[in-house]
Amino acid sequence: MVINTNIAAESSAQLLASSTADLTKALRSLSSGSKITSPEDDPAGLAVSMGFDAESNRLTAASDNVSNAISYTQTQDGFLQQVAKALDRMSELAVSAQDVTKTNTDRGLYNDEYQQLASYISNVSGKDFNGVSLFNSNSKAVTIDSNAATWAMNGINMGAGSNYTAAVADNIATTAASITALTDVKTAITQLANDRATIGANLARLDYTNDQLSVEKTNIDAANSQIKDVDVAQESTQYAKDNILVQSGTAMLAQANTMPQSVLRLLS
Prior knowledge:
The chain has helices at about 5-30, 45-95, 105-125, 165-170, 175-230, 230-260, 265; strands at about 130, 130-135, 140-145, 150-155. The chain is mainly alpha-helical. It has 2 domains: about 5-35 and about 230-265; about 60-230, CATH 1.20.1330.10. The strands form 2 sheets. It has a two-stranded antiparallel ribbon. The protein has a two-stranded antiparallel sheet with strand order 3-4. It starts with 6 loop residues before the first helix and ends with a helix.
């Protein structure tokens, strides 16, 4: 038995320090909800988790971009639905203006309505969505993934060079003009049907892309969760174990520190 060096106390102190460190780590994990509360906990896992976090955020941004493109396309279709009603009425007026029992004065009244509807269509052709033209021929590059790859969304042209301009420029003030107007309006209606079909195809593609981004983000978040999220049940068990070790270690250290005092019995 020695006095100067208390090996039992040193060993107990070392084990107590280790148990205390483990208990502190368990407390940090339980309070933060993360297994990685410091880089040394899992250096490689931290690096991978940071990459997943960044990718997840980029996927959210891409999904927002696609959602905005969907809103843009839905706005296009909303306007074209009203244009369809206007063109239908214009075609009806063009036929009515060809009635042989009507005078040019009567046709003038029909023409007033025709011109108002034509003016409405011209106005729609210049509409925009957040400053971006809805109805020019330019395709739109829509972001579709976390790497900012793009897909060219087909544009809808209602401006110069489109099949709408002739119908808008016509009149039905005479029988001959009404015949020409009817032909042009029918062409515009056919073009409108094609344009709405294009919008439908764009919407279908955007919906699929949005769903794919949602699934991809869910999978990325799930993989990230496996790396950094704490298993509360498992960590609680570890905490209870470490807590008991700290308490018993404290008691044993106190006991080890009293052992040298037994030397006094040998000297008495």
